[in-house]
């Protein structure tokens, strides 16, 4: 953690749970203007860690017989995935969850980046509300990366669609289903699905970004954003204690029946970064010491997070960097689970 601060991360917060109890620590600062330290209780934007929550709800719905992962996107969202080679009739819900759909990632669209990510557009549009249909529309202006099921490619569009499938299957906003099915049963008091709310609840630290395509240049406070631009792909807020509780509960079968948990942990290996596999909203990571952990990373403007746990859920780690341009998160994971 201190090495990450030395590398330019303003501040780090981490929490560990294992059979000996819990341990938490902070490094660096939560506010570069006042030098106020981070708190071990900090809430932060968890970015794509949201995907594990979304996949969990979809798998619960499958266990209840309300949908099948082999259903096509077209069955649930008719006419939505269509154009420039995209065709929802040939894409299954499973392919959304494991990123084998080939659907273009809307966040890679150059206009989107200049409008919502890079400096000039960000300050003008940071409070804009974007509907999930607008996000999907951006993706449909591009060709798919590959035919469905033939390769692997991470796409946030997949999970915006997954969130809409939850809403179609239940009649409720996907965030309400996450609250009802996961947050409340596990007493995740720091975890929220903010929708269009631009603030991070206290206690929390400031979040920083470069708002540029390089890691040099000025640092900007970008704590306040409208997270609707991430929707079900990455809008959630949590803290390290809640994330540890969530992944431990998930991996020990407290949220999913055995069949659905096994499906979640069935991974795609080809095309995924080395020593990594991607299941249904969850990543498998083989560490340098030979240990395998399960979890997810999450990046959103001003925030970079990781949550990981051993397969039996007995040892869990969650941490956050309050920036989006530096810091070796892999080193933190290796240090906790493998030691020096």
From TrEMBL:
Q: Which InterPro entries match?
A: AmpC-like (IPR050491), Beta-lactam-related (IPR001466), Beta-lactam/transpept-like (IPR012338)
Q: Which UniProt keywords apply?
A: Carboxypeptidase, Hydrolase, Protease
Q: Mark the transmembrane ranges.
A: none
Q: What is the residue range of the signal peptide feature? A: none
Keyword Transcription included in the entry's annotation: no
- Gene3D superfamilies on file: DD-peptidase/beta-lactamase superfamily
Which ranges carry the Beta-lactamase-related domain?
7-323
Q: Which GO terms describe its molecular function?
A: carboxypeptidase activity
A Pfam family hit? Beta-lactamase
* PANTHER family the UniProt entry points to: D-ALANYL-D-ALANINE CARBOXYPEPTIDASE, D-ALANYL-D-ALANINE-CARBOXYPEPTIDASE/ENDOPEPTIDASE AMPH
Name recorded for this polypeptide: D-alanyl-D-alanine carboxypeptidase
Q: What taxonomic ancestry is recorded? A: Bacteria, Bacillati, Actinomycetota, Actinomycetes, Kitasatosporales
């Amino acid at each position: 953690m201190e090495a990450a601060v030395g590398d330019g991360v303003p501040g780090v917060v981490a929490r560990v749970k294992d059979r000996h109890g819990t341990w938490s620590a902070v490094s660096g600062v939560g506010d570069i203007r006042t030098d106020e330290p981070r708190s071990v209780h900090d809430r932060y934007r968890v970015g794509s860690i949201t995907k594990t929550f979304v996949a969990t709800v979809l798998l619960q719905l499958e266990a209840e017989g309300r949908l099948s992962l082999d259903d096509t996107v077209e069955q649930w969202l008719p006419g939505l995935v269509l154009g420039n080679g995209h065709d929802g009739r040939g894409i299954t819900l499973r392919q959304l969850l494991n990123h084998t759909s080939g659907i273009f990632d809307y966040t890679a669209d150059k206009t989107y980046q200049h409008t919502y990510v890079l400096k000039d557009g960000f300050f003008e549009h940071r409070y804009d509300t974007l509907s999930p249909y607008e996000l999907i529309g951006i993706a449909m202006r591009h060709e798919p990366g590959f035919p469905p099921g033939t390769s692997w490619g991470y796409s946030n569009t997949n999970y915006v669609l997954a969130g809409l499938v939850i809403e179609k299957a239940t009649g409720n906003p996907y965030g309400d289903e996450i609250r009802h099915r996961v947050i409340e049963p596990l007493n995740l008091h720091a975890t929220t699905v903010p929708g269009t709310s631009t603030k991070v609840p206290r206690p929390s630290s400031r979040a920083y970004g470069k708002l540029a395509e390089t890691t040099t240049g000025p640092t900007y406070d970008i704590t306040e954003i409208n997270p609707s631009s991430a929707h079900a792909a990455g809008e959630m807020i949590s803290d390290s204690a809640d994330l540890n509780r969530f992944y431990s509960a998930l991996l020990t079968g407290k949220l999913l029946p055995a069949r659905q948990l096994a499906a979640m942990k069935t991974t795609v290996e080809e095309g995924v970064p080395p020593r990594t596999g991607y299941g249904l909203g969850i990543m498998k990571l083989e560490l340098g010491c030979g240990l395998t952990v399960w979890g997810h990373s999450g990046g959103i403007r001003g925030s970079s997070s990781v949550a990981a746990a051993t397969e039996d859920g007995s040892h869990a780690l969650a941490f956050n960097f309050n920036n989006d341009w530096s810091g070796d998160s892999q080193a933190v994971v290796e240090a906790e689970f493998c030691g020096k």
